[in-house]
Amino acid sequence: MKITPRLSETVTEQQIEVLERRAARLREKPPSESEEAVLWAAEFPIGEETYALPLEALRAAVPLKMVTPVPLSPPHVIGILRFQGQILTAMSLASLLGGRGWREDPAVLLVVDPGLGGRLFALDCERIPKPIPLPISAVEEARTRAKGAFAEVTLPGLQQVNLIDLRRLMDRRSSEKRNA
Questions:
Q1: What pLDDT score was predicted for residue 11?
Q2: Residue 77 three-state SS
């Protein structure tokens, strides 16, 4: 494509060549934005903080009203529900994370697979999560610093998302049961 200037004054061939190179450079995507790998996560609030689960662990979002309460169950267990022919345990995510409170009453259950032998369970949530991309480099850095069940990922703009590690979360619950 040949560039023709709109100016009434004459433009030299050298100036046209410079303009064509600039135009070609502007058409290219910056390598840092297009090549950075991301981890897709399901983001949702718990109280005043933002949490996320890896999207590959999320199987479904179902209404909380499908839960049947279980008498004398532990405090973190809301009840049970039937999902695709399986009986799942529904747990309070706020309780599992150490008593953080909800801003709104939970209305949704997130059916998740923690990768522990195919056993699914459900976690309560205020609302259906939204998908967000998390830069892999930030996730890996946060995971190396993490000591508990979640890693604090800092996004551009200083937004912070707590990425939940379901395996560590469930390992912590099982170790608490053994110590009790």
A1: 76
A2: strand
C-alpha span between 132 and 180 (Å, rounded) = 38
Q: Per-block average pLDDT, block size 10, for the chain (180 residues)?
A: 61 86 79 71 86 91 87 89 90 78 72 80 87 91 88 85 88 52
Q: Is residue 80 within 8 Å of residue 67, measured between CB atoms?
A: yes
As given in the structure block, the two tokens for residue 95 are: 């309780």
Asked if 161 contacts 41 with a C-beta cutoff of 8 angstroms, the reply is yes
Half-sphere exposure (Cβ direction) of 154: Cα atoms closer than 13 Å: 5
Q: Which helix (H) or strand (E) covers residue 52, if one does?
A: strand 49-54
Backbone angles phi, psi at 73, to 5 degrees: -80, 160
CA neighbours closer than 13 Å in the CB half-sphere of residue 89: 11
Q: Which helix (H) or strand (E) holds 58?
A: strand 58-63
Cβ atoms 78, 67 nearer than 8 A: yes
Query: Residue 91: phi, psi to the nearest 5?
Result: -120, 155
Convert 122-153 to b/e letters by CB count within 10 Å (16 or more is b).
Answer: bbbbbeebeebebbeebbeebeeebeebbbbb
Is the separation of the CB atoms in 135 and 154 below 8 Å? no
